[in-house]
Amino acid sequence: MRYKLTFVVGLALGYVLGTRAGRERYEQLKKSARQVAQNPAVRNTAETAAQQGRQFAGKAYHVVSDKVGDRVPDSVTDRVRSLKGRHDGTGEDDWGTSNT
């Protein structure tokens, strides 16, 4: 019982101390993350990685579809076609990143 009480007291103390310093630290981390995310070098790298991922996924799709052929259920084939057809040419994907 003593260990449970010590744990609960420690948890409560950690919570109280964490909430006092937590909000300021949270705001600092949020500001830093926003600055990093808005950095042009980071954005370009993320967009390049997303574009390469889409290219590799497209190649993998063709390789797999050539090997699997007609053994894929129609429901899966229809779903893939619908996902491929969702690209409307606006230059953005579902994640809000550009395709350029």
Description:
- The protein has 100 residues and is mainly alpha-helical.
- 78% of the residues lie in helices and 0% in strands.
- It has three helices and no strands.
- The chain has helices spanning 2-38, 40-68, 74-85.
- The longest helix has 37 residues, at 2-38.
- It is elongated.
- The termini are far apart.
- The mean pLDDT is 77.
The gross shape turns out to be: elongated
Work out the helix count. Answer: 3
Radius of gyration: 24 Å
What's the count of strands? 0
Structural class: mainly alpha
Please provide the ordered H/E string of secondary-structure elements: HHH
Give the fraction of residues assigned to helices. Answer: over 70%
Strand content: under 5%
Query: How many strands, what sense, and barrel or not for the largest sheet?
Result: none
Mean pLDDT metric: 77
Distance between the termini: 62 Å
Low-confidence stretches: none
Brief summary of the model shown:
With 100 residues, this protein is mostly helical.
List the helices and strands and how they pair.
Elements: H1 2-38, H2 40-68, H3 74-85
